[in-house]
Write a structure and sequence with these properties.
The chain is an all-alpha fold and about 60 residues long. It is about 70% helix and about 0% strand. The chain is built from three helices and no strands. The chain is elongated. The model has no long low-confidence stretch (mean pLDDT about 95).
Length: about 60
């Protein structure tokens, strides 16, 4: 069988983990991009802290 049925709880957990992973990867790519100014990077981190505080605290709180 190709697919395995999972519970609603497991689905919710996987979607949260997948979203967090994507946000962390995107943020790292913005921070590593040499074309983005330091001012824009700080603005991006403040925006992340405001809208995704839990992810910001876990991964990027020492950046600003």
């Amino acid at each position: 069988m190709y697919c395995e049925r999972i519970s609603a709880t497991e689905y919710a957990k996987q979607s949260v983990e997948g979203t967090e992973t994507a946000i962390v990867e995107l943020t790292n790519s913005v921070l590593d991009d040499t074309k983005v100014t330091l001012r824009e990077k700080r603005r991006y981190l403040r925006h992340l802290a405001r809208h995704h505080a839990d992810i910001y605290i876990r991964h990027f709180s020492d950046m600003i």
